[in-house]
Design brief:
This protein is of the alpha+beta class. The protein folds into two domains: 139 residues, no CATH class; 119 residues, no CATH class. Strands 6, 7, 8, 9, 10, 11 and 12 form a seven-stranded mixed sheet that branches. A hairpin with a 2-residue loop joins strand 11 and strand 12. Helix 1 packs across helix 2 and helix 3 packs antiparallel against helix 4. The protein is rod-shaped.
Length: 309
Amino acid sequence: MSKPYVSLREVGRLLDVPPSTIVYYKDKFQRFIPSVGGEGRRRRYPAAVVEVFRRIREMFADNCSVDQIERELVLRFGDLLGDSCFDQCSDQYVDQRVGRSAVSGCGVHGSCRPEAGGVLDKIADALENQSLFRSEIRSLRDEVDTLRRERREVEREYSTKVSALEKEIAELRRRMASRASGGGIDFPPAEFLSGPLVICSEGEYLGVQGKGGRPFSLQDFVRLIERKMSESMDVEISWRRQDGHWVLVVRTEDRPRRREQNIVLVSRRTVTPSGNIVTEVTRLNIDGNDAPDALLLTLFRQLRAVFNG
């Protein structure tokens, strides 16, 4: 270090230690911290004390006791601080700002300190410590102000997100209410879609059964339409409830031929005489024309061939 003397504030900056901690070290191990100069902020310390403070900090970090630290300081820095302290006491530290000289003595050789100046030196120490504490308090206040600003920004961001979520929830509730009142999109329950799909011909319920005994369902019918027609057609499927029935509307468009076709399948939940719950097709309309029962039977035969193939 190029400077022969340093202040406690400079020691703190060099070691990246809060001023209050440096003051604590200085008061705790005062006889190992020689000083020269005037009162208060004018007091200076030999540059060698930086290493003393560094070692004190390291040993405190290692949970060493005060006795252990003092023994370490005596063994490691006793000669260095003793010689420098003797030299400092024989010289005068000139204060250029007030045009006078003063010797404050040191902590290692108590006889070097003039008795008359003892009280003034203690007052100077207290004033310097107070100055360091005030500096640290200002630093802490700046940190608190920064944290408060960050908290306000987080709260504003949080409030914005909560407001957006509340709007989305309100919109979802509005849609659900509209759907419950019949004004929105409706969809059949899963048990209705998965039930056996049948037609009633002359009092007999006819269905389609595939391999493994699994019955052909309305859900299978919709998938079949989507798979077969979507290869060359645009398919649009929608549902609605009407007089206790479910109405399936299939709109197709043959892209190459630019031909449209509308298929309407009306079905309902039915219990057969044998007690089976089935999905009965009550009406099939193609382009505005209702299909006769014979066509429904033909359709079911074709479905059987496709479903079992």
